[in-house]
Amino acid sequence: MEPIAEAxxxxxxxxxxxxxxxxxxxxxxWAAARLLFHVYLGFALFTxxxxxxxxxxxxxxxxxxxxxxRHIGPAARLLPHGWIMVFKILKGENxxxxxxxxxxxxxxxxxxxxxxxxxxxxxxxxxxxxxxxxCEKIACPVLxxxxxxxxxxxxxxxxxxxxxxxxTQQRELTYYECPKWELQPxxxxxxxxxxxxxxx
Length: 200
Ligand code: SF4
Fold this sequence. Notes:
Elements: H1 3-10, H2 16-23, H3 27-47, H4 50-53, H5 55-63, H6 72-76, H7 78-91, E1 116-118, H8 133-137, H9 156-160, H10 162-165, H11 170-176, E2 181-183, H12 185-199
Antiparallel strand pairs: 1-2
Bound molecules: iron/sulfur cluster.
Residues 128, 131-134, 166, 176, 178-180 line the site of iron/sulfur cluster.
């Protein structure tokens, strides 16, 4: 399941969403992959031991690596973290979580260019420099506190849920206080109109 890799191979310079649109998105596959992950996550969270009994699956989903013994520490912290995230969602915290990602949307390795762009005053290019705000805001156990790098970079979870596509909404940028990205003016205006339509 690597539509992005296929698309990137030949036409790396073009926006990903454009390529996917032209090729006819295999949306049902993305939806099935996400639904399967939701079921797996529910199994792991509600049984409390499901994630440990299927450690290689868990580490593949989150760290992109079947070799579970390399990730035992951070992987063990995923269970309490998962429950904390469930409570944040139930409380309605406004940061944008995995349930916000449409089931049929393509996986992303960077935000869609039609939605977001680097801020003019951001001095590190595509890199996040030394910033870790979004990971630290939710105390993400996948962040390597020694190196400051994400241990799950480009894993299934990273690409199919919020991380790879961050940011897609202004409320995410506000919540995480991200100094790097801003929404494209057209996308911001669209979201503003939608919010007003809901309010009135
Ligand atoms: S808040 Fe923005 S700049 Fe900081 S780590 Fe997250 S995406 Fe990168």
